Amino acid sequence: MATTADIKKGLCLEFNNDIYIIVDFQHVKPGKGNAFVRTKLKSLTTGRVVDNTFTSGHTIKDVRVERRAFQYLYNDDMGYHFMNNESYEQVAVQESMIDNAKFMKEGLGVEILMHAVNEMPLSVELPQYVILEVTYAEPGMRGDTATNTLKPAKVETGADVKVPLFIDVGEKIKIETATGNYIERAK
């Protein structure tokens, strides 16, 4: 058991018969009245984000989780398949547990949040950046560089991204997985 003093980003807790992870929080001490903690919680089973306010000193039931290194193998009608890097065991995960699965290519190293007690996968976290090859891009207009103009492109995983005009087919680019934004050319 924990209290509101233990709240921090990434803490997993049991709330309303579901497992949530704290995405954001804010301790508030108003001039009048008791202190409280505003939280933004994301359900690890449904992906829904809810706002909740806990009064100061409220006890919460934290869930013990472990982050384990896995490697993405393939996906099929059963879900996305990953291999544990230490034990070589495979686990299948539904797409709803993965944010931006469209940026995963075979062999990508990811972290899976596992429930420590019943060994159930809770969510899949991609690395902050991935490097992918551009398979299709519209030709850029010559001389149109006065502004930061972006054009649509398709990468090797099938995802659509917006890239600058100078990016051509066959180039490798660095993409931020959380937002899907182009960062830079990869070397």
TrEMBL record:
A cellular-component GO term for this protein: cytosol
Entry's localization field: Cytoplasm
Pathway involvement of the protein, from the record: Protein biosynthesis; polypeptide chain elongation
Residue span(s) of domain Translation elongation factor P/YeiP central: 67-122
A GO biological-process term: peptide biosynthetic process
Keywords: Cytoplasm, Elongation factor, Protein biosynthesis
Family: Belongs to the elongation factor P family.
Official protein name in the record: Elongation factor P
Organism: Candidatus Opimibacter skivensis
Lineage: Bacteria, Pseudomonadati, Bacteroidota, Saprospiria, Saprospirales
